[in-house]
Amino acid sequence: MNLFFSSESVTEGHPDKVADQISDSILDEIILNDKNCRVACETLVTTDKVIISAEISTSSNIDYEK
Description:
extended, 1 helix, GMP Synthetase, Chain A, domain 3
């Protein structure tokens, strides 16, 4: 049986890490205010642009630009 394993490592400041930090921050803020929330959040980062794509069910209001 042949098995292939691959992994990727990125450094601080890489767009993938920045996107993960943004998505995690949104999730953390919502969970603090609504324990019954449902969050599916993806963040897309490119030069001079950040796009947040999400399905969020919550009773809380957060400032996404913060």
